[in-house]
Amino acid sequence: MNQNTINQIKQRLSLRLPLAEALEVTATIADHIPLNKTKRNTTVQEDLQVIKGLYPSCTDFQRAFPSITHNIATGVGKTRLMGAIITYLYLAKGVKNFFILAPNLTIYEKLIKDFGDPAYSKYVFNGISEFVHNRPVIITGDNYVQQGALFSESEVRINIFNISKFNSDNKGQKKGGVALAPKMKRLSEYLGESYWKHLSSLDDLVVLMDEAHRYHADASKKAIDELNPVFGIELTATPTDEKGKPFKNIVYEYTLAKALADGLYVKNPTIAKRKNFNSKEKSSEEIEQVKLEDAISIHQQTKTDLELYSLNNDEKLVKPFVLVVCKDIAHAKAVYDYINSTIFYEGQYIGKALQIDSSTKKDEEIEQLFVSLENPDNEIEIVIHVNMLKEGWDVSNLYTIVPLRAANATVLIEQTIGRGLRLPFGGKRTGEANIDKLTVIAHDNFDSVIAEAQNPDSLLNKLSFVEYDEEQVKEKTIATTSVSKAEKEIAVEQAKVDAIVDVQQKQTAQNQVDAKKAIISVLPTLNKIPEIKKVEDFSKPEAKAKVIEQIKETFNQGQGNLFADDIVKEAETIYETVVSNYKKQIIEIPRMDLVQGDAHAYFEDFDLDTSVFQFKALEDEIIRVSLANQAEVESLRAISSGNYGNPINNIIVELLNYSDVDYDDNAELLHKLAKQAYSAIEASNSDEKDMKKAVFQFKKTIANRIYLQMKNHFKIEYSNYEKPNVLPFTKIESHNFSALASNGFKDYRDTISPVSLVPKYVFTGFEKACHFEYKFDSNTEKELAFVLENDSTVVKWLRPASNQFRIYWDNNSKRYEPDFVVETEDAIYMVEPKSKDKMQDSDVLQKADAAKIYCKYATEKNLENGGKPWHYLLIPHDEINKTINFAYLLNKFLTK
To answer: pLDDT at position 873, please?
Structure first.
């Protein structure tokens, strides 16, 4: 196996671990069987024995040529694996001819784009430099007659055929009563031979079968065998043939159960129903109505969550949709009509539903909407279908499924859930539970699904089960952005301009608003200019000159703005006024990336629990069996030479087999623990020779028991934070959060009862804050906001957005998001209210340490430039109420 090539492909294609493992398996097999017919010196049966020796699960190729199967779960990336395998076989083995079979038209068309369109986002060879100037030639089931042999020998040729086209072109036909040869076997004027003969005569043809379970029927097997390939690679998530028998040539498996257990590459599927729902008391129409309503309620929340995630993390916008599975076409039409009526959510989904089945799929407009479901501009939010759960429906934005037809647990998993497992953000989980989740509404068979999940062999035991309160799912939320005060004031001015009727007056006002927008957008970028050390420096002439220069460049680039000169003049006129107001509305937050250095892992010193080391030496025996009569068995005592080596060393050598045990770092501890274990064994044996023998016989077990105790004393120490590059200030970032669509905004002075409802609302009415609107995670935070807003010593305060600070902790795996920043006349404070019982938690203390280091560097930067020092306050929640003032908290909790 060419490991360098393997490593390059893994890196360039960013292969997930299961795909990398499957690629290595393929590469190993490619090393052990010939991949060129001319050079072949083995039979197919000999090749089978070689592969069986490497991978015992492969007991039969089930084809006339060497063929192996990779059982890869839906959503993990079978197409990318095919691209990696083709790349490896070309680079490492010189294979240039490939034949890919697709099970249906949808996958066929997708594969042509995946392998043939470098501009396509899912192009499988992105990053493979060898294919930039020598791009693989794509030959399809539609153009093979004309293009099959028009290319040079140096090129990689990938044939892509839909299995139905492949089979039909290999069947004899009649014309005018005369039997014709199959199309692929007819002479081609372009090739000088039939395309079939051309393919089957190739020395190095490798066949790749996508959704390989579709090619085990006799007709397909015969046609593929006749291609006479040198090697076959089958990929499927369901490795059983049409009779339900498992494949015999599986060499690698990464099943859906494994993917769900790993929690990395697919969504977390959840079965949901409404609490206290009794399907026996309702008609089928009532059940369907409740299921659809609950699905839409969950969909609306998911839609909001996805929008917020994209805003907060600068990711692409993902528009989710709901899949409704119907019994038949008549049922689908009835559901479609209901959703497209004013009865369903007052007509909110009219024009946003799509019926896709055999009665509609030939409609070009419907087909276009169906294939573009991942496009955020596609307005479809509900797909209603019958029997369209086919392989190749490759979408990542399906989040809610409503099976309205009767479905047992197996069907629910194999057909329904499999369609919605793909993840939209680079194929990785985000860590946000709601947007890593697929929800299946199963009110009427919820109990039977749960019962099936009790089976330890069932895939369903990997799923989550949720019961929703009726009111909970019906609460509609919307995504809300709370911009800084400076931006909000401009938005208000813009609304007034939009209402002006007089054209000339409107343009003059628009120029002024555009000038303000431009100044506000440029000011935060001045933090990189050496002469601008603090916000006060915005008043310097050189700062104004830089801002005006940037505005000129912005409005004159491209086709420019017809009113660019007027806007620039307006900016020059109002600059001082805008800057003066802007300074009053922000807190100077130094910009820095605070990251930790390398981590040091070690085992701390401890004493063994020796109660588990009672090992007694065993007598060595020789078992002798008669070849003539295997029932004749006798035991003979073996006489050992007594050379058992040094028992302490024997134990240590075994411990060093564990990858995280390093001798140089742990030599003293290893010798100590080995001696303690050896001393414990002394009590179980009569003499020194027996003790040495016992250690020799049980050394693996002894080492394992020591290692298990060592793991309980494994520690990681993080080195100090690296000194950051500190910029003097940064912009006040916007908040993005969800709000109840109905009555979701409250004044911060309002009393919310019960207090558990506080996180649901957006609060307004702030005058000292840097935003007009905030959400709070608890009533404690809301009450602290009340204190800050009404304390005369507080000049300004801020509830920072999630991306305001870049303070990392836990070996840089997590980012700390402070709750409040408070500015007084003489200092700036980072403030964290915390539940009293969590004040000493490890994560709280780690975040506090990181925050204090940030404050240290921020203070250094500010004091250099005549600014204010920073301090950190960690406050127990029971010390916060509306009757205190900020000075009380400072006196009690400020540590210097």
So the answer is: 96
